[in-house]
């Protein structure tokens, strides 16, 4: 069975990448600091089925010794980096995904460059080394026809309230991945817009509310202002995941996947 390793597999997007990968027949390993995600509280959507098929493990993306063994699995030829920070306040995700948004932010910060760029480059470098080791150990002398992929979740563009450092760190990561690893990996750069989960549209939280605002502004811009304002549509995590898996399966594809392409799925 084909193996797929996803870093950040228990996040908003990571979960749906895991789900789509399971449905696509992959043996999926999710690596994150916390490991297994909590089971869904709602029984409306059958998340428990695919969650039980994922290998949930703990690892630190900045410490290769915690995850090298998973990359050395002979069936793993595809890796996804779905780790990142939108705001340098390390507590922003709990605020954004909360029901009331009353969490008190901590003063601890994380660097955009460290999380959004360096962690991706370090992971790609480690993956490349593991692929070379596997090829050497297996005494491969001929081309197997398999083109390993390294997928990076980037972003379409930054929102007005988001610091410039966010999108800058993403673009630097893209540039480095495409320039350094294209010769023996297939870098796949996904550029989604503001993301929401289709299964949560009937519930209320800050992210769902923000999605409503983003969608309204984009629709209004296209209708009244003929697209003259710099608005962009939101995108579901399900669409991003389906598009990503299609690019991973396509052995000839590498490069940037813009929001317009993702929106077709």
UniProtKB/TrEMBL annotation:
Its GO biological process terms?
ubiquinone biosynthetic process
What's in the GO CC field? mitochondrion
Enumerate the InterPro entries for this protein. Answer: ComplexI_NDUFA9_subunit, Epimerase_deHydtase, NAD(P)-bd_dom_sf
Read off the SUPFAM superfamilies from this record.
NAD(P)-binding Rossmann-fold domains
Q: Name one GO molecular function term.
A: protein-containing complex binding
Give all residue intervals belonging to the NAD-dependent epimerase/dehydratase domain: 5-84
Pfam families to which the protein is assigned, alphabetical: Epimerase (PF01370)
Designated name of the protein: NAD-dependent epimerase/dehydratase domain-containing protein
Q: Could you tell me which species this protein originates from? A: Naumovozyma castellii
Q: Which gene encodes it?
A: NCAS0D03060
């Amino acid at each position: 069975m084909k193996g797929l390793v996803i870093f950040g597999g228990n996040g908003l997007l990571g979960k749906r990448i895991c789900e789509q990968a399971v449905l696509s027949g992959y043996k999926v390993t999710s690596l994150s600091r916390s490991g297994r995600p909590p089971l869904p509280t709602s029984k409306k959507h059958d998340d428990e089925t695919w969650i039980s098929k994922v290998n949930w493990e703990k690892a630190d993306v900045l410490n290769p010794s915690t995850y090298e063994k998973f990359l050395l699995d002979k069936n793993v030829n595809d890796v996804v980096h779905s780790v990142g920070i939108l705001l340098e306040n390390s507590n922003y995700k709990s605020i954004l995904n909360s029901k009331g948004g009353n969490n008190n932010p901590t003063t601890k910060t994380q660097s955009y460059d460290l999380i959004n760029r360096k962690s991706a480059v370090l992971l790609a470098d480690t993956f490349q080394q593991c692929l070379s080791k596997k090829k050497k150990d297996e005494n491969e002398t001929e081309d197997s026809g398999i083109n390993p992929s390294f997928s990076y979740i980037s972003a379409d563009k930054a929102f007005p309230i988001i610091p410039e450092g966010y999108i800058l760190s993403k673009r630097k990561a893209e540039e480095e991945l495409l320039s350094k690893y294209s010769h023996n990996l297939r870098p796949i750069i996904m550029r989604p817009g503001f993301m929401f989960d289709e299964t949560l549209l009937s519930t209320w939280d800050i992210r769902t509310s923000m999605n409503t605002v983003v969608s309204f502004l984009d629709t209004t811009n296209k209708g009244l202002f003929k697209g003259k304002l710099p608005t962009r549509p939101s995108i579901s995590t399900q669409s991003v995941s389906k598009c990503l898996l299609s690019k991973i399966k396509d052995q000839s594809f590498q490069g940037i996947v813009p929001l317009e392409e993702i929106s077709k799925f």
